Amino acid sequence: MTLIPIRRAPGNQLDDNMIPLINIVFLMLIFFMIAGQLSSSELIKIQPPTSQQQSALQEHDAILFLSAKGRLVLNDVFLDASALTEILKQKIAETNDIQSFKLLVKADAAVPASELTDLLKQVRAAGVLKVSLATQTQISRND
């Protein structure tokens, strides 16, 4: 009686154990791609003031951020307050219609009213006719 060694097919037995793990990781990837929500982050954190009015946010040609520390960001570009008027004039010239140019101002709630007034004067000097101030809705608590 001779013993014949049984030859196993040269396989990747270690790799065979990895296939279920790869499947799970792939399914998790698909789940997070579908369930996750991508949104652009703002360069500076803004906590807008509260408002009682609940009108929907409309499309705007430019968005101007004003932080509590007085930093300005126009369409994801930091700028000085002295250059704001000229840059807005350029943006208006790009649209070719001063009547249709709309600017959204997102100012922090901690910004003093005098600073916001000065900013809006600069916006008016640039020739912007339609300006919206972004606010958040006031949350009523029933404690």
Verbal overview:
- By secondary structure, the protein is an alpha/beta fold.
- Helix content is 33%, strand content 17%.
- The protein has four helices and seven strands; from the N terminus they run H-H-E-E-E-E-H-E-H-E-E.
- The strands form two sheets. Strands 4-3-2-5-6 form a five-stranded mixed sheet, with no helix packed on it. It has a two-stranded parallel sheet with strand order 1-7.
- Helix 3 packs across helix 4 (113-126).
- The model has no long low-confidence stretch (mean pLDDT 78).
Name the assembly state: single chain
Pattern of helices and strands: HHEEEEHEHEE
Q: Order of strands in the sheet with the most strands?
A: 4-3-2-5-6
Largest sheet: 5 strands, mixed
N-end to C-end Cα span: 89 Å
Low-confidence stretches: none
Q: Considering DSSP H and I runs of 4 or more, what fraction of the residues is helical?
A: 25-40%
Give the helix tally.
Answer: 4
How much beta, percentage-wise? 15-25%
Structural class call reads alpha/beta
Shape: elongated
Average pLDDT, rounded to a whole number, is 78
Overall radius of gyration: 28 Å
